[in-house]
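User: I'll paste a sequence; please echo it back and then give the predicted structure.

Assistant: Echoing your sequence first, then the prediction.
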Amino acid sequence: MSLSKPIYTLLGSYLEQLFEHPLRTKALTSCVIASSANLVSQKLAGVKELNKDSVMAYGLFGLIFTGPLSHFFYSWLDRITNDTRFKKLFMVLGERALFAPIITGLSLYFISRFEYKSHDEALGNLLTQYKSILRGNWKFLTLPVFINFNYIPPMLRVLFANIIGFCWMVILSTKRRKAEQRRQQQEQAKTK
């Protein structure tokens, strides 16, 4: 029981902040989870030297985009589907048809920009990876989105999405790193 008291205290503090300052709490939570996901991805890849720019880029994306956009989009979905018979279905379809494509595009472009890449490099990253990553998002994240809208209280939906997003960001970060390594190898081959 001694372990559970600090956990309950932390959970209580989090829920209090979530209730009193929902946008700020969701943004900060998204920042921490996104940074952690990138860190885990780098560790799993066995990188010799931690890419701090990448960790910061993912954190900034979570802080500026993922947390706030999820907060506003989920609130909007709740309002527009309020009195419909198929509310949960419309919410899942809305998230999959609108939010997933937008957040995928934003992540591919802005994470590259936050890593100090040029507009052309970020746009190239977006154009080459967008379709495959969006298809993977739809394929692997539709069930967790369904669970989120059907079984998770509205106040905790962004947190649940962030926890699922942690796993997805580890995959995304790994795919982006491999694509970057291939691009660097191709450039080196051209210069030889």
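The helical segments are 4-20, 22-45, 52-80, 87-114, 119-151, 157-191. The CA atoms of residues 38 and 55 lie 6 Å apart.
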